[in-house]
Amino acid sequence: MASILPTGVRNMVKGLDANRYATKKTVAQGMLDIALLTSNASQLKYVLQVGQKHEFYTLLVVLISISIVLQLIVGLLFVVIGGLDLNDQEDQPSALILNDIIVIFIFVISVLNIVISAFGIEYSNSPLILERLKFINTEYLRKLNTTTF
């Protein structure tokens, strides 16, 4: 059977380095983790700005905080697993266990963020924008009533 790939490319494909693949995978997962961490930080900021006026304030603060802590742990585990040599027989069991732990944490983080978006920020009965508009209108009416013509 004829091969489409030139000999040099065929040899390169056969010699894929597991460490290089794992490193690229870890970097890509880390970037996604940073994006989610940024999103959670923004959500937490919003909920804290609205405060107790948000109907799910306590629930969202707890869920977002747990999500952020788990993401930080996953980030640390990425650093640890990135330092392991997958070609070394002694490092392989540790790498497999760490990888399983990371997968479990990522699953929990995903479920948490689904719940966070279900109790979402934009579906609150008193979003921050409406609160600010109410404050501005109240101040305007108060000044209007105190001003005599």
Description of the molecule:
The protein contains five helices and no strands. The radius of gyration is 25 Å and the shape is elongated. It has helices spanning 7-14, 18-50, 57-82, 92-118, 128-146. It has 149 residues and is mainly α. The chain crosses the membrane at residues 56-81, 101-124. Keywords: Cell adhesion, Membrane, Transmembrane, Transmembrane helix.
Summarize the structure.
The chain is an all-alpha fold and 149 residues long. The chain contains five helices and no strands. 76% of the residues lie in helices and 0% in strands.
Estimate the mean pLDDT confidence.
79
- The sequence of SSEs as H and E is HHHHH
Describe the biggest sheet?
none
Instruction: Estimate percent helicity.
Output: over 70%
Give the N-to-C terminal Cα separation.
97 Å
Number of domains: 1
Total number of beta strands: 0
Flag low-confidence runs.
Answer: none
Keywords:
elongated, mainly alpha, 149 residues
What is the fold's blueprint, element by element?
Blueprint: H1 7-14, H2 18-50, H3 57-82, H4 92-118, H5 128-146
Membrane topology: Multi-pass membrane protein
Protein name: Ninjurin-2
GO cellular component, one term: membrane
